[in-house]
Design brief:
By secondary structure, the protein is of the alpha/beta class. It is 30% helix and 19% strand. It folds into three domains: 150 residues, Aconitase, domain 3, CATH 3.30.499; 93 residues, Aconitase, Domain 2; 144 residues, Aconitase, domain 3. It starts with 5 loop residues before the first helix and ends in an 11-residue tail after the last helix. The relative contact order is 0.14.
């Protein structure tokens, strides 16, 4: 008999079933159920199905982050509706505009802990695996069900063992490793699977590294991703697939338009002109990301005609970057620093791309129309590569700027 994966163990506890296996259908009760600006849509469905009271208000969290401050009248109305929902249902875990991106905020606030099951109406809820929780993205209809009855039917995912060995050389970051992962697995290569991360890389990795990798796992189609901590897999666990990469042999890479798995070495596209550079989002808006950008740009000016937008992932990161002088160095270099939130990542505001513009971004998606015009092109890369590219006005290898 094969052993249990981390995913199977967490779902066993959440469902009360002794031995759920990959492919089984279970009814699981989440420890935390997160929605963002789309909570107003969840509530509409909640009311349509005849529900009146949330089954477990203590498990519900709402973070306004996608279009903050409100960019349209409709957004403002939706956010006002969410505030009324919070008051009407007595939801205490509410984080209004300005605190930051939902995944970053919930982890910073200590609301996500190892072994928890976290459901979120956002595909990048896989991020919660960075702290050893099982994060699963669901739709608004599913979340309405969670609100109504406190649980949700789920199919237990198969697990993929993804091993990262060694420590990367200077100039190589978790974002590069995550893009290499997607290049190996493919854009839907882990469809409805749980990616279990292993390997010596995680002996020295920090929380920011783990959040980037778990976040980007969503781009492989993964249902969840996790770095095992308190809950560990059995030694005889049977995996659907086993994949390994050597971090020591990695180099800076970019995902070229219009798919995240179009991954090539940065040297292959070096010199391509850019109009905009973006550092932020739930993938790479953390203090470490802003710090490496500042180290590259300090005492210099970005290329004339190139826009550099910096969006910290949370207000805590924003304030820490201010205290450490990081924001000042970025602004002096010509960067625009926006309020914490999702910002330009979803193409709603604070940096929308125009027709035929080219952007290099530290965010997570580069399909057509993601950041604005469907005629624009988006290249995905590490914050270091983005900063170096902003400096030169063209895609650049960051290693020559890192001592």
């Amino acid at each position: 008999m094969s052993g249990k994966s981390v995913c199977e163990k967490i779902l066993a506890r959440a469902s009360g079933k002794d031995n759920p296996k990959a492919g089984d259908i279970i009814d699981a009760s989440p420890d935390l159920a997160m929605s963002h600006d789309n909570a107003f849509l969840v509530n509409q469905i909640f009311r349509e199905i005849g529900a009146k009271q949330i089954a477990n208000p203590a498990s519900i969290a709402i973070v306004l982050d996608h279009r903050v401050p409100a960019n349209t009248v409709n957004s403002a109305n939706a956010q006002r509706a969410v505030r009324k929902i919070v008051a009407d249902y007595g939801i205490e875990k509410f984080f209004d505009v300005g605190l930051g991106v939902c995944h970053q905020v919930l982890i910073e606030k200590g609301l996500v802990k190892p072994g928890m099951l976290v459901l979120g109406t956002d595909s990048h809820s896989t991020t919660y695996g960075a702290v050893g929780a099982l994060g699963i993205g669901i739709g608004a209809t599913d979340m309405a069900s969670v609100w109504a009855k406190g649980s949700l039917w789920l199919r237990v995912p198969e697990s993929i063992k993804f091993t990262i060995q060694g420590n990367p050389e200077k100039g190589i970051f978790a974002k590069d490793l995550s893009l290499l992962m997607i290049g190996k697995l493919g854009a839907m290569g882990a469809d409805y699977c749980c990616i279990e991360f292993h390997g010596s890389f995680f002996n020295k990795s920090n929380l920011a590294d783990r959040m980037t990798l778990c976040n980007m796992a969503a781009e492989t189609g993964a249902k969840s991703a996790i770095v095992p901590s308190e809950v560990k897999p059995d030694e005889n666990t049977k995996y659907a697939k086993i994949v390994e990469i050597d971090a020591k042999r990695a180099e800076p890479v970019v995902a070229i338009p219009h798919s995240v798995d179009n991954v090539v070495p940065v040297v292959d596209v070096e010199g391509m002109r850019i109009d905009q550079a973006f550092i932020g989002s739930c993938t790479n808006g953390r203090l470490e990301d802003l710090a490496v950008a500042a180290s590259i740009l300090s005492g210099k000016r970005i290329h004339l005609g190139t826009r550099l937008i910096i969006t910290p992932a949370s207000s805590s990161i924003y304030m820490a970057a201010a205290r450490e002088g990081i924001l000042e160095r970025l602004v002096k270099a010509g960067a625009i620093v926006t309020n914490p939130g999702c910002g330009p990542c979803l193409g709603a505001h604070e940096g929308v791309l125009g027709e035929r513009e080219i952007c290099i971004s530290s965010s997570n998606r580069n399909f057509k129309g993601r950041m604005g015009s469907s005629d624009a092109k988006i290249f995905l890369a590490s914050p270091a590569t983005v900063a170096a590219s902003a400096l030169e006005g063209k895609i650049a290898d960051p290693r020559r700027y890192l001592s």
